[in-house]
Amino acid sequence: MSTREQNTLSRFMPRLRDVGARGVRATAGLAIAAAYRRGLTGCFIDADDVPQWARREARRARDEWRANCACAWRAEEAIPSAAQGKGRGQRAVHFQYAMALDKRIYQGAQDYNNCTSWCFRAVAASCLAVDIVAKKELHSYKARPGTAGIYSHRGHASDTGMAIYLGARAIHQHGIGLEINYPGIADLSTEARDELAGVQWGRSGPPAAFREAVNGDRIEQTSEVTDEEALLDILHAGHFVGTGSTITARGTGDPISPAGSVGGHAQALIGYDDTDEFRDWYAKTTGKKLTGWVGIFDQSWHPDWITVTNWPDHLWGPKPEGAFVLPGRDVLRMLNTRYGAAIACSKVAGFPVLDLPPWQDALNWM
Questions:
Q1: Dist CA 311 CA 78 (whole Å)
Q2: pTM (two decimals)
């Protein structure tokens, strides 16, 4: 990235850092949202309407990810026949496992240009929660995954965003760091310390001792996904998707928001609903007719950036702090390479059928 390109992007950042340093989190989050809408590029994607330098970075990261990730097949080709077609007409709110495991998993707001690391932190945490709460696997849980280990693998020293493929590669190849104190290495025990470390480690990446400490905890599979049926099958089976796109929600959600354009933002797709039960409820509640499905997202701007009303707790459980909802047609636009990219992540290779019970039933043991 040239100096001129860095300067063009960094003109947005001093205000964000200053506001965040004062501890006014709501103001900082809204300032970040406004900066993205003015053209700030936080997630490098090969999309038509992002700067050419960001497209170059995205292509390079994509090619390296495809060449070096052992599981870099397309998700459409990885789904076993037993799982194919299972997602249509269903609902998946497996993010409730994460909410039950740790209420902080979806909380907070970025103070830097690190939306990609926030996105894949949410994806990794969601996968871990499914393993622990739904599958009853004997993992230890100390704290939610952090952003430092992800953002420090962005490949450049300046705080100018990160390619979505590098975020996926970080949690797959390098390991998942946590928001804890690593004695003698780094104290990442608060959101602020964790974020700052990711910025400071920069081009060199995290310290070798940190890499060694986290290398054993990794997402086992990351695969690109663009097909609608495959996307629904993956979400239904208990896996999660990191997206990078110039599309996000805008305006008030009821709970569904209209789509809007941004400079490039990473957001975690953590659930969906394709049921008549939701469509009927939505029509009765809002007077609007809904066709098709909706996607449920988590992202790293402050929760006050958009107002979401009519959240159906009886169908989806408690609302994650930064959650918003988009119609399926807009989610598919996000997956289209003209607007962005999406990477499905799974703890277990092959996106196996987990045969998960309803989340309410699974949580009864806690």
A1: 33
A2: 0.90
